Amino acid sequence: MQHHASTNPAPVDIGSTLDHGPFSSMQKIVVMLAAFAIVLDGFDGQLIGFAIPMLIAEWGITKAAFAPAVAAGLVGMAVGSMSAGIVADRIGRRLVLVASVALFGAATIAIGFAPDVTAIAALRFIAGLGIGGALPSATTMTAEFTPARRRTLMVTATIVCYPLGGMLAGLFASAVLPVLGWRGLFWIGGALPVAYSLVLLATLPESPRYLARKTQRWAELRKLLAGMARPLPPQTMFVDAAEHAAEQRAGFGALFERGFARDTLAIWGGFFLVMLATYSAFSWLPTMLATEGLPAALAGSGLTAYNLGGVVGSLGCALAITRFGSRWPLILCSLGAAASAFLLKGVDIGANSTWLMVGLGVHGMFVIAVQATMYALCAYVYPTMVRATGTAAALSFGRFGAILSSFAGAAVITSSGASGYLSLLGFSMVFTLVALAIVKRHIPGIRSARTAPAPQPHVTGEDSPAIPPATAKGYA
Question: Do 35 and 144 fall into the same domain?
Answer without folding.
Answer: yes
